[in-house]
Design a protein that fits this description.
Elements: E1 7-9, E2 13-15, H1 20-25, E3 35-39, E4 42-46, E5 55-59, H2 65-78, E6 82-86, E7 91-94, E8 99-102, H3 103-111, E9 117-123, E10 126-131, H4 140-163, H5 167-171, H6 173-194, H7 202-229, H8 235-256, H9 260-280, H10 286-313
Parallel strand pairs: 5-6
Antiparallel strand pairs: 1-2, 3-4, 6-10, 7-8, 9-10
Helix pairs in contact: 2-3, 2-6, 4-6, 4-7, 4-8, 6-7, 7-10, 8-9, 8-10, 9-10
Amino acid sequence: MDRRKLIQHGMSSLTIALPSKWLKERALKKGDSVQVVDEGSKLIVSTDEPLKIEKVSVDVSNLDRTSTLLHIQSLYRYGYNEIEIKFKKQKTIHYRREKEVNFSAVVHEIVNRLIGAEVVEQTENRILVKYLTKEAGQDFKVVLRRAFLLLKEASATLLDGAKNDDKTKIEIIEDMHDNVNKFVNYSLRLLNKYGYPDVKKTCFYYHVIASLDKIMDIMKYSARMILNEDTKFSKTSIEVWENINKSVEMYYEMFYKYDQNLINDIERNRQRVKSQISAAMKKVSREEIRHMSNMKQMLELLLDLADARMGLEY
């Protein structure tokens, strides 16, 4: 904790010096204005200026494909405007597919999920990614709603594909995942660089957005299993999936039009699905049980998100 002494300024005012690191990161100078909010025992000083986080260089030579994706993604989310990626060898391991892939392909794959980022330089052992889009903190709510809508669409598409044994719809879940991930990444970048106007709500929003990413991951993994195993679903399984999809729709409605009754409905539906799965154990195939158990994780995350939404309200 950085403790600072109050300094007498004039006859009736006391001042403190703001940390130079904080000022430099936001390029603030004499004459610029900041917002000061009284929060009980705290004074919160904030600014509309984003963090000025320019460059970072990382060596991913020892990372596998997925770890490389996540590393670059995390730097983008943090707010860097220029990311230099270096690698001593051309290939890395893709554990899920049990084969080697080019580092170059991995970098291009993740950059395609980073709104505003482009590969601007590339050599044999180095790729330079720059953020080229003008952004603003007020974009946050628009981008977040887009992520929610895409998640809802993915849930409905996966249900429809399973219900009608439509493999075409199941196949596009992977692309829908990447699209949701794109808006999640951008939302977290904006939140990291600008914060939320009400500082106390920033952590709640970060938790909500990160959890949307996890929910979409669950759907992606289910889609992969369906395609790999060519699973066919019984009426019992479809009823479970319909109720899970219903909870996704209820949470979206509750998030944008807060209603405590909907929180109650989400929990009631969660318990209904758990009962349905228990009753189905001896009626459906082992593959169907695995899928239902996997998708049920979405309900646990949605209940946790209901908690976060209550925090945002109060």
